[in-house]
Write a structure and sequence with these properties.
Blueprint (H helix, E strand, L loop, with lengths): L14 E5 L7 H4 L7 E6 L7 E6 L5 H16 L4 E3 L5 H11 L4 E4 L13 H9 L3 E4 L9 H14 E8 L5 H11 L3 E4 L10 H8 L3 E2 L3 H11 L21 H8 L3 H12 L4 H12 L3 H14 L2 E3 L5 E3 L1
Parallel strand pairs: 3-4, 3-7, 4-5, 5-6, 7-8, 8-9
Antiparallel strand pairs: 1-2, 2-6, 10-11
């Protein structure tokens, strides 16, 4: 029986090969530890200029994805290139937010540009190219992605950026290693704080303890970017930004405002601290004096309203 032929999708757009020391090679990557000897680029090589790296957990919570979208979008609206790694979760959210803001974004891959990973994000990679950004690798076009190449790729993300923003990171994690690479290259590390009870925020909070710069709201982010990028202007007069906690869509906001009684109490508990079902029953039973059956029913109602969802790690929290 003849073996099945696997069709590999190939990114379309201008292709370039940049060599270290030659004209057109990004200046920011020439001075990092272990600079790449070559860069293979699909898209506009002119997009490879100093920007803001926005990275976070692959198995991201809505909180992490919301933070990535918020700050990447703010930066992109003012002409700051958003740099990330194209992974699921926070990285993809940052790229999409930059595109939606009409900005430029650069995606560094772990493998060659003709072996894009994850394959589920192929359409996103193509959108990056089509919007005037670039998909980049230090490996030849058909080099397959390997576990170690993602770790080494992180130095390129941090190296091209003037600062790296960590929106969510566990311990250990590739996101945490990107922060290490930024520090090695004498770049600023900015961090969005997370819950001390969330495994996906342990790395981010550890970085804050070690002296990283906290980003606690839009105003502090504006001030930080004004100091980093001379052409950056405050987001005065823009429409209201997405909140870091809670719901992000208009429909979800309306649904939240209509909550009352036990459902509202359970939602407020999960907004402060996402929990697994057994934890919710234990904590909320103590706080509101309701039995397990009523609390399970309240969770089901919150899910049906679209204001709460189950995270990849099994916890329930704001959508």
């Amino acid at each position: 029986m003849a073996s099945a032929v696997v069709q590999v999708r190939r990114l379309t757009g201008p292709r370039s090969k940049l060599s270290l020391g030659e004209e057109g090679f990004p200046a920011a990557l020439q001075s990092i530890p272990h600079p790449p000897k070559e860069l293979y680029v699909v898209g506009d090589p002119g997009a490879l200029r100093e920007g803001l790296a926005v990275v976070g957990a692959r198995k991201a919570t809505p909180y992490g994805k919301n933070a990535a979208s918020l700050f990447a979008g703010m930066a992109a609206r003012h002409g700051v290139v958003v740099v990330s790694g194209g992974a699921k979760g926070c990285d993809a959210a940052a790229h999409r937010a930059a595109l939606e803001a009409g900005g430029t974004t650069v995606c560094f891959l772990g493998g060659g540009c003709d072996m894009p990973y994850p394959v589920e994000n192929f359409d996103l990679f193509q959108q990056v190219v089509d919007a005037g950004g670039a998909v980049v690798s230090e490996h030849p076009w058909t080099f397959p992605p390997k576990p170690y190449t993602f770790r080494t790729r992180n130095r390129l993300i941090a190296g091209l950026a003037k600062a790296t923003l960590i929106v969510e990171a566990g311990l250990p994690s590739g996101t945490f290693s990107t922060a290490d690479e930024a520090l090695s290259a004498n770049k600023d590390v900015l961090v969005v704080p997370g819950s001390i009870f969330s495994a996906t925020s342990k790395g981010a909070n550890r970085l804050l303890h070690q002296g990283a710069t906290p980003v606690v709201d839009e105003e502090t982010f504006d001030m930080l970017l004004q100091s980093l990028f001379p052409h950056y202007l405050p987001d005065v007069g823009q429409q209201a930004h997405l909140p870091l906690f809670g719901n992000v869509s208009a429909a979800s906001s309306v649904a939240t405002r209509k909550l009352e009684g036990l459902s509202l109490e359970v939602f407020r508990s999960l907004e402060a601290n996402p929990m697994r079902m057994d934890e919710i029953i234990e904590k909320c039973s103590e706080g509101v004096g309701q039995g397990p059956q009523s609390i399970v029913k309240a969770i089901a109602e919150l899910e049906a309203r679209g204001v709460v969802e189950r995270y990849p790690d099994g916890r329930f929290g704001p959508r």
